[in-house]
Amino acid sequence: MKTVIRIFLTLTVCAMWHVSAAQFNQNQVIAHRGAWKVEDLPQNSIASLERAVELGCAGSEFDVHLTKDDVLVVNHDNDYYGIDIATATYAELLAKKHPNGESIPTAEAYLREGMKQKKTKLIYELKTSKLGKERTLHSADLTVQLVKKLGAEEWVEYIAFDYDACKRIIELDPKAKVYYLNGDKTPAEAKKDGLFGLDYHFNVYKKNPTWIREAKNLGLVVNVWTVNTQEEMTNLLDQDVEFITTDQPALLLDVIRNTK
Fold this sequence. Notes:
By secondary structure, this protein is α/β, with parallel strands linked by helices. Helix content is 42%, strand content 18%. The protein is built from eleven helices and eleven strands. It has helices at residues 2-22, 46-55, 90-93, 107-114, 133-150, 163-172, 187-192, 202-207, 211-217, 230-238, 249-259, and strands at residues 29-31, 59-66, 72-74, 79-80, 83-84, 121-126, 156-160, 178-180, 197-201, 221-225, 243-246. The strands form two sheets. The protein has an eight-stranded parallel β-barrel, surrounded by six helices. Helix 2 (46-55) links the parallel strand 1 and strand 2 (59-66). Helix 5 packs parallel to helix 6 (163-172). The protein is globular, with a radius of gyration of 19 Å.
């Protein structure tokens, strides 16, 4: 009887996990810095994240820097409207606002907002610190601590240009889905170091035309950035890449619908 109960509980947990995972959108569209372009929303803003969710994107990418006082904040550039993030405190960054009235979001606030839904994954780009490797790795440490504190593992996938930061995240969370961005590692190297996938600029794959196939044969997931033309989108979809990062998520959704 105990064996039967144990089997039933195991099957129930597996079924619950499958239902939970299946709630996320199953398409190839990753909105680059959120879905900001059509409505001219601030990039990396909460508004651009919400628009990506409304569109039905599989994921919404966002960029994270570390302030002087160890606050993780969401912004693409090293500066926020003229304020250098790495050498400023979070309080100092609050002196400026996005054109829509939003303040610069902390990574925690951004993740909490993203966790209100289960349709769009949160593609967390850990930015390389201009202050050096130590600060970059410290950012990685704080990032994994934050994701674990919030219980956001189901939503978050990581990308980074710093290969050591990628490996640090994997070391801290072996189950984390981590992709490398820089384009200078072969699929075999990425697989050996425990990465979940490659996330390279489309020109990298053009220069290395066997890498998409090699990556897929190794069980790596392939993402491509930043793809904004219908021609290039179609070319990559024909190669069965899993994800495409784009500033034009609505266009890519239309291309996908028209190719089915």
